[in-house]
Specification:
Layout lengths: L29 H4 L3 E4 L2 E5 L16 E5 L2 E4 L5 H11 L4 H5 L1 E5 L11 E5 L6 E5 L26 H10 L7 H9 L26 E2 L3 E2 L29 E7 L10 H4 L11 E4 L18 E4 L8 E2 L3 E3 L37 H4 L1
Parallel strand pairs: 10-13
Antiparallel strand pairs: 1-4, 2-3, 4-14, 5-7, 6-7, 8-9, 10-11, 11-12
This protein binds calcium ion (CA) (2 copies) and copper (II) ion.
The site of copper (II) ion has 8 residues, from loops.
Length: about 350
């Protein structure tokens, strides 16, 4: 994949991950686990894009029909306040804390932290710098805090860290297919989670880079860096900020080609390729800009190594539908919120309907 706006830490890091979790996973009732999640009804959806604006090396295409079982997914990214609770209860230490430094978008580094910047640059993405002491509590460097960002997405979390949090919460990371199906909100073939226009009727829908990347950020959408996890309007499934704000880790290993061939394992609840170092990230971030990296489109994708953390990568969690039967072929009325599924008739149905309304086609 291209460098996008994502630097990567040294692969094959010597830092150990939570192969076995360094804490006891608390017992949680299913109703508690799914309290802030949306139920996605499953069924068939069209995954991927043939968008000519996409990067061929990303493997967004081909557009293919993918079948999913019903599942639940967080309506927002995991916020700092929740990640802080996890760390307080478990004593978990993130990769960035163990490694001692992490990646920060250079203009966000405070003058007080300039001496903490590592003497190394990221090829093709010189706006990223490694900063000693940057971690989830101090996302822009040790002089920064999350004091006023409790409702912002936790960042400076690696795939390993996200996986550990998810296990603690009684959840897991979404598969890439689950992420995309949920992010599309029932729209078929749309460019964004809300439709095809970036700002319909002039209304800003997401937090990306405005102005000229990477020299001038007009912050016309209200945010230079991260926005609260529930900023802007949610999509039809109730999910916030799938596009923009922060990249979101998915469970799958990264490949640009694994999914191209239609086989049961790539079309029916795909779990990603069996081998590979990097993991998938979806949704783009506050640094994405049409002129440089338009991966905030809902089909956009990238990957990064599992111990890398940056100031623009976070995550949300998913879980199986606890009410579905063992075969996964039918489901019962669950204890959680049934997400309204738009249909042509406007009625609410637990069956996935992947048709766009005439109004959406215009
Ligand atoms: Ca912005
Ligand atoms: Ca996002
Ligand atoms: Cu980008």
């Amino acid at each position: 994949m291209s460098a996008c706006c994502a630097p990567r830490n040294t692969p094959a890091s010597s830092v150990g991950g939570p192969a076995h979790l360094p804490f006891t996973v608390p017992e949680r009732a299913p109703a508690e686990v799914i309290r802030t999640m949306a139920r996605i009804p499953g069924g068939v959806f069209e995954m991927g894009s043939r968008d000519g604006d996409g990067f061929p090396e990303d493997g967004e295409g081909p557009v293919r029909e993918v079948t999913l079982r019903p599942y639940y997914i967080d309506t927002t990214c995991v916020k700092n306040a929740a990640f802080a609770r996890f760390v307080k209860e478990t004593g978990y230490v993130t990769d960035a804390e163990r490694i001692g430094w992490s990646f920060v978008f250079a203009p966000l580094v405070a003058p007080a932290d300039h001496a903490k910047v590592l003497n190394a640059s990221v090829p093709q993405a010189p706006w990223w710098v490694g900063v000693h002491g940057a971690n989830w509590r101090a996302p822009d460097g040790p002089a920064s805090t999350i004091g006023s960002r409790g409702n912002h997405p936790a960042v400076q979390v690696s795939w390993q860290d996200a996986t550990a949090y998810a296990a603690w919460a009684g959840k897991r990371l979404p598969t890439e297919a689950e992420w995309e199906c949920a992010a599309r909100g029932g729209l078929e073939g749309a460019r964004y989670p809300w439709g095809d226009e970036l700002a319909p009727r002039g209304r800003r829908q997401c937090n990306i880079w405005r102005g000229v990347f990477p020299t001038h950020n007009s912050a016309a959408d209200g945010y230079i860096s991260t926005a609260p996890v529930n900023a802007f309007r949610p999509n039809r499934y109730g999910l916030y900020n799938c596009s923009g704000n922060v990249w979101e880790w998915c469970a799958d290993r990264w490949s640009a080609t694994w999914h191209v061939a239609g086989r049961p394992e790539t079309r029916n609840n795909p779990q990603g390729p069996p081998t590979g170092e990097s993991r998938v990230l979806r949704g783009g971030s506050y640094l994405c800009h049409d002129s440089y990296c338009n991966r905030y489109r809902v089909a956009g994708r990238t990957g990064n190594t599992p111990h890398t953390s940056t100031g623009h990568m976070g995550f949300r969690c998913a879980t199986d539908d606890p009410s579905r039967d063992a075969a996964g072929s039918a489901w019962l009325a669950g204890p959680g919120r049934l997400v309204d599924t738009p249909t042509r008739s406007g009625s609410k149905s637990p069956t996935y309907v992947s048709r766009r309304t005439p109004a959406e086609r215009r």
